[in-house]
């Protein structure tokens, strides 16, 4: 059989691993095998996109050699297997960004398995792919550049994840009774021909080139990215606040890029607090508009697709910019509101969509290992003040523990509840109360 990367990855996916996954997920072995086969192009093309970006060849070469050195293709200890499973999950979340969960959903639908099982398979596929790439690199004595060239070529020969399933399957439970999301393909990382990479704090940010100065061919990939942003905004919501000067410099507005976002938000309003977004009657939350989409690449090579005015971008720029210092005198300054972290009404339970932003923030904090932050919890002014204070305290602690559970040292994260003490707008309207019910983050040490 002719050597191909896809064939080698399928062979490397050991039967023992498949059987263990079947036991842990309670899924059919053949369905998991089918899901794994469909996950291979996703992983390879995501790694190919990483290899084509700034510092990508070295990052992929180093990680694949590390996987090969850890013998991830061979039977290993449970601890080592679990550690690499977590790394595989983090890698794919970083590479796919906000399309990670939609990609897992498409894999689940195509294979007829639960979304959680598809995520496990995607992680296993990432680990197996790294092991095979590392082994091939070792055998061929590839350096970083040669490995990147070979990987990009192999990725270009693989098919996209099919949009239609091979057999009808029931809609996943998470979609029952809810509008079906737009099917979004896994996007390769853009290159300098379509926009600009800017180094910031050891990482990079990417903004699209103005179509008036770039070629027409550069518009189409970003059209897909905007479709992704619209689909994600429909489900998760967005935020826009007045961006810092450096955020504007890294995300220069393009009329054709901004237009689809403003068209989507024709019903958006500017709140008394200066935030652009809308109040959602169904959830009781304020849905923020985070502005023009951009790609944030961290120093460890992972990427996040976020808005120019998002919590993630504002936090990253503050940590990365030496000119921005912590105000140790006025402790009311420097707070950044989370724009996609919500709780169940009157409870301390995070909603499902909140974990994506918390995971992004955890990744950013791990990029700056010397940083220390405080999570602040706030409520509106309705109800008893003492009860509100207790609720805000518990919510802040819940967010803090979630971030710590994502790999950030618990000693670097503090939590404090303030109840309705520091409201940002009037509590006389539903919109105002929704804005005042919030979770914020403040950098205490860079």
From TrEMBL:
<dbReference type="InterPro" id="IPR006665">
    <property type="entry name" value="OmpA-like"/>
</dbReference>
<dbReference type="Pfam" id="PF06078">
    <property type="entry name" value="DUF937"/>
</dbReference>
<dbReference type="Pfam" id="PF00691">
    <property type="entry name" value="OmpA"/>
</dbReference>
<dbReference type="InterPro" id="IPR009282">
    <property type="entry name" value="DUF937"/>
</dbReference>
<keyword id="KW-0472">Membrane</keyword>
<feature type="domain" description="OmpA-like">
    <location>
        <begin position="330"/>
        <end position="446"/>
    </location>
</feature>
<protein>
    <recommendedName>
        <fullName>OmpA-like domain-containing protein</fullName>
    </recommendedName>
</protein>
<dbReference type="InterPro" id="IPR036737">
    <property type="entry name" value="OmpA-like_sf"/>
</dbReference>
<dbReference type="GO" id="GO:0016020">
    <property type="term" value="C:membrane"/>
</dbReference>
<dbReference type="InterPro" id="IPR050330">
    <property type="entry name" value="Bact_OuterMem_StrucFunc"/>
</dbReference>
């Amino acid at each position: 059989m002719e050597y191909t990367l896809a064939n080698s990855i399928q062979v490397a996916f050991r039967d023992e691993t498949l059987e263990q996954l079947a036991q842990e997920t309670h899924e059919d072995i053949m369905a998991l095998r089918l899901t794994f086969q469909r996950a291979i192009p996703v992983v390879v093309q995501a790694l190919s996109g990483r290899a084509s970006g700034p510092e990508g060849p070295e990052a992929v070469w180093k990680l694949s050699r590390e996987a090969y050195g850890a013998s991830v293709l061979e039977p290993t200890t449970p601890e080592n297997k679990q550690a690499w499973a977590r790394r595989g999950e983090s890698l794919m979340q970083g590479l796919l960004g906000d399309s990670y969960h939609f990609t897992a959903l498409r894999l689940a639908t195509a294979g007829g398995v639960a979304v959680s099982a598809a995520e496990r398979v995607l992680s296993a596929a990432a680990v197996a792919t790294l092991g095979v790439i590392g082994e091939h690199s070792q055998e061929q004595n590839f350096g970083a550049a040669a490995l990147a060239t070979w990987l990009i070529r192999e990725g270009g020969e693989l098919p996209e994840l099919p949009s239609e399933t091979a057999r009808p399957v029931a809609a996943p439970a998470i979609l029952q009774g809810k509008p079906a999301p737009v099917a979004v393909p896994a996007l390769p990382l853009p290159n300098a021909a379509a926009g600009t990479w800017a180094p910031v704090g050891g990482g990079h940010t990417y903004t699209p080139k103005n179509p008036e100065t770039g070629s027409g061919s550069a518009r189409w990939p970003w059209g897909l990215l905007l479709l992704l942003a619209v689909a994600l905004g429909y489900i998760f919501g967005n935020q826009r606040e007045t961006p810092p000067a450096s955020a504007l410099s890294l995300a220069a507005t393009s009329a054709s890029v901004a237009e689809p976002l403003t068209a989507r938000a024709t019903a958006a309003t500017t709140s008394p607090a200066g935030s652009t977004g809308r109040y959602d009657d169904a959830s009781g939350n304020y849905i923020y508009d985070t502005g023009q989409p951009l790609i944030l690449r961290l120093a460890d090579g992972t990427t996040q697709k976020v808005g120019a005015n998002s919590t993630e971008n504002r936090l990253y720029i503050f940590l990365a910019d030496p000119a921005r210092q912590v105000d140790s005198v006025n402790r009311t300054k420097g707070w950044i509101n989370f724009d996609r972290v919500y709780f169940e009404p009157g409870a301390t339970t995070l909603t499902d969509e909140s974990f994506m932003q918390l995971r992004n923030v955890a990744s950013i904090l791990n990029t700056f290992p010397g940083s220390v932050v405080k999570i602040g919890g706030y409520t509106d002014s309705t109800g008893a003040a003492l009860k509100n204070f207790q609720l805000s305290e518990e919510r802040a602690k819940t967010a803090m523990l979630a971030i710590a559970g994502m790999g950030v040292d618990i000693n670097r994260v503090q939590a404090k509840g303030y109840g309705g003490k520091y409201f940002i707008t009037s509590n006389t309207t539903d919109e105002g109360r929704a804005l005042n019910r919030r979770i914020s983050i403040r950098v205490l040490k860079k």
